[in-house]
Amino acid sequence: MKTLAKYSIGLGDRFGHQGSAQLKAIIAASEKGIDITPVWNKSNREHITIGTQPLDVRIEADSVTKGAGFKKPYFVDADHINIDTVDRFIECSDFFTIDVASYIGKKADEKDILEFLSGAEKYNGGLKIAGTKLSFESSISQIKHIAEKYLFAAIKARDIYRKIEKAKGNGNFITEVSIDEVVQPQTPVELFFILKMLASENIPVQTIAPKFSGRFNKGVDYVGDPLLFAKEFESDLLVIDYAAKEFGLPENLKMSIHSGSDKFSLYSHIGSIIKKYNKGIHLKTAGTTWLEEVIGLAESGGKGLDFVKEIYIKSLEKIEELCAPYADVININVSSLPSKQEISEWNSDKFSDSLKHNPGSSDYNPNMRQLIHVAYKLAALQMKDYFRLLETNEQIVSKCVYENIYNRHICRLFDLK
Ligand SMILES: [Zn+2]
Predict the structure, then answer these.
(1) What is the distance in A from the centroid of ligand 1 to the CA of 178?
(2) 20 to 30 A Cα–Cα from 246, which one of 14, 77, 119, 219?
């Protein structure tokens, strides 16, 4: 049975050039005593936008791990797949993020709901998790309400899981279920019963990605109250731990945080809570490696700087088209974006400092950063030129990628100095 270790990080690499630099960050962490399983994730949307195939991610992961003599487990994640998009991922992936968010709120058949309720009767009245301060009330009508909201999604997750299992065989892949791409966060009580549903459908889920309060915009810090997040995170973690035992789910079941990367104000909370309970985490980062490529090219100056300036100018022209698919996960204040005229005067430092996520820097511009984050399609349109520049400036670019994953993410999450 393939099992995911205690700590794992999802690494997005849109253009498939930075696997080695990302792996270097994982190796650096293990030298500090933190063993992290690397998981290369790429969603169907990213593949379509760039014109790559799921197999490309497999080839990258296999070749960089082999090149580095990396003998520990690693995975290739078919990120946010559903019943319609999973097919071309099946052969080359060994980690599947089954996304059933779009089914939430659709009602399952009455008989399925009644069957679920009869198995949940013992929780009528509520639950107190021994040894913790977590308890909740749950009347049968509340449980019914939860079943009406989530059972259909759990049944869909089963259908997708069975399709993958039929092709790959039981135990040959990691299963994640994601319900994060919705407006309303799930409460701990809801999460508890969702896990019961997944267990009843015999889905050996190893990671679950709930939705939390606040905004998780791509590539920038969390927008919301970090203390409220910490409270939710702790409750969810206790629920997951209890539910795994109670429902016979895999004992390594853990939380997957789809952070959209760079949630620096949350990392210390996550780190201290998982430490307190000795629990694991899967941190799924978005494709901000692409941003590091842009920063690296800007720092390289010359043609690299010219290329990324051109990308930015085009992104201003196509802003609506680029932002539309990401409307729920970005928040750009257009009036704070530098104009074409302004950036034409900029040198390497000014351009890269505007994009680099150093919240303390006066040049840092989160609006520009988010716009470039969604502008990767423009580089895909000039792939040959782009790849040539990445290769010419490999050293400086890979240093940016490494430092981003290691210093800004891993060190903050695991409190490494
Ligand atoms: Zn997600």
Answers:
(1) 7
(2) 77
Domain total for the chain?
2
Distance between Cα 106 and ligand 1 center (Å): 20
The pair of three-digit structure tokens given for residue 203, joined into one six-digit string: 């889905």
Q: Tokens representing 417?
A: 């100095």
Task: Give domain status of residue 278, yes or no.
Answer: yes
**Is 40 found in the same domain as 69?**
yes
Same domain flag for 231 and 353: no
Q: Which DSSP state fits 37?
A: E
- CA 287–ligand 1 middle distance (angstroms): 12
Q: Which residues surround ligand 1, an ion (CB under 5 A)?
A: 180, 258
Residuewise pLDDT in 10s, the chain (417 residues)? 999 999 999 999 999 999 999 999 999 999 999 999 999 999 999 999 999 999 999 999 999 999 999 999 999 999 999 999 999 999 999 999 999 999 999 999 999 999 999 999 999 998 888 777 888 889 999 999 999 999 999 999 999 999 999 999 999 999 999 999 888 999 999 999 999 999 999 999 999 999 999 999 999 999 999 999 999 999 999 999 999 999 999 999 999 999 889 999 999 999 999 999 999 999 999 889 999 999 999 999 999 999 999 999 999 999 999 999 888 889 999 999 999 999 999 999 999 999 999 989 999 999 999 999 999 999 999 999 999 999 999 999 999 999 999 999 999 999 998
Beta-carbon-side half-sphere exposure of residue 23 (alpha carbons within 13 Å):
22
Distance CA 243, CA 263 (A): 27
User: 345 alpha carbon to ligand 1 midpoint, in Å?
Assistant: 37
* Cα of 214 from ligand 1 centre, angstroms: 14
Q: Which domain holds residue 223?
A: 7-104+152-287
Domain shared by 180 and 57, yes or no: yes
Global pTM value? 0.96
Q: Which residues pair with 97 in a beta bridge?
A: 176
- Domain containing residue 60: CATH number: 3.20.20.70
- State the distance from the centre of ligand 1 to the C-alpha of 350, rounded, in angstroms: 32
Give me 228's structure tokens: 């409220």
Looking at 237, 253, 287, which one is the last position of a domain? 287
98 and 74 in a single domain? The answer is yes
Bridge partner list, 135 = 128
